[in-house]
Amino acid sequence: MRVLLISANIEKLPDPVAPLGLAYLSSALKFQGYEVQCLDLCFVENWEETIGKSIRDFSPEAIGLSLRNVDNVSYPDTVSYLPFYEKVVRCCREFSASPIILGGSGFTLMPDAILEYLDADGGIIGEGEEALAKALMTFTNSFSSATDGFLSRRVKSPAQPAWIRELDSLPPPDWEGLDLKKYFSQGGMGNLQSKRGCPFSCIYCTYPLIEGRKVRLRSPAKVAQDAEDLIRRGVENAFMVDNIFNFPETHARDVCRALVEKRIPLQWSCYAHPSYFSPALAEEMKMAGCTGVEFGTDSGAPQVLAKLGKNFTPQKTSGEPLVWPVRPGWKIAIAFLWERPERLQKLCKKLLSLWKKFLQRR
Fold first, then answer.
1. Which helix (H) or strand (E) segment is 305 a member of?
2. Rounded distance, CA 15 to CA 182, Å?
3. pLDDT at position 356, please?
4. d(CA 179, CA 192)
5. Could you say which residues of the chain have pLDDT below 50?
6. Strand 100-103 relative to strand 62-66: parallel, antiparallel, unpaired?
7. What domain range includes position 77?
8. E strands in 8-71
């Protein structure tokens, strides 16, 4: 069966992001015997013409459309991507009568509404490497709704998200149909993943919806193999896309050791949690090629942290955990959320006090 996979993300700010999820999906489908072609719209000049040519040349029997984001997450200058996705779906309909299946993190956030808005035939909620293949196998004249994670407009039934229990059962990402060098040359970077799932309860975060709450770990050796593959493809910098790289810390250290053992000359950065950052981990990350860390500290006020569902105190956001990454010479980013306007002045004073302490420790 021929399957065309389309990455519909054309956003290049703050930097273009290579479609790692699509690469995993392509690899999984090929491993199960499907004939797969990938189409990345990020850098094409005329996406309508490109879609038409791809469909004419490949004659897909099913089309998978990956939706990375719903909008640009830039309030108050919010830009919705759904109108563009609708145009992509209509363009596919012009050239093919094959079913269109939606997926990706953006679709998983609000699947029913997006499925109806885009007028697609179905979609995968959660992770698609196993669910899409199962849905395609049961396809005759309509999709079966019996597959976990599969949602259909024709059969209205609640679909449970699809999660991969054993991540090591998946083949490595398939980058063959995607231009990683183009992403790298345009200011982007490669992507690595060492785990999926987030057990924390930050009230604003979508990761538990996208990846589930159960943490599932990849073999450090497989992560190192993926890093080697990026180097072979001319990519020298990567981002570790884990929602939090340093939890659990033991696994993070094992990944670092695997990278060191392979002597992989890849520079990378990651998201980190301030409560699970030790001097030993900082040193091993430096040896493994880490050059930057972003901490989601959010606030210096204990009552704000509690309301946000954070499991740490202001002491963690102004103490030693944020100093250890500075000592190896890394670039660090610390994210804060602003309170409502009437409390802004008071919060600013707390943040300035926190930063004064932080700078004195450097």
1. helix 302-307
2. 12
3. 67
4. 16
5. 140-141
6. parallel
7. 2-152
8. 35-40, 62-66
Question: Nearest 5°: phi and psi at 307?
Answer: -65, -30
Same domain, 142 and 260: no
CA dihedral for 9, 105, 67, 85, sign (positive or negative): negative
- Strands of 331-336's sheet, edge to edge? 190-192, 237-240, 267-272, 290-298, 331-336
Name which of 344, 333, 7 is nearest 174 in CA terms.
7
Are residue 61 and residue 131 in the same domain, yes or no?
A: yes
Q: What is the pLDDT of residues 188-217, one digit of tens each?
A: 999 999 999 999 999 999 999 999 999 999
The first and second tokens of residue 22, run together, are: 């699509």
CATH code of residue 8: 3.40.50.280
Q: Which helix (H) or strand (E) holds 82?
A: helix 82-95
Q: Is residue 15 part of a domain?
A: yes
Residue 17: Cβ within 10 Å count? 19
Tell me how far apart the alpha carbons of residues 124 and 153 are, in angstroms, rounded to a whole number: 12
Residues in contact with 83: Cβ distance below 8 Å, sequence separation at least 6, in sequence order: none
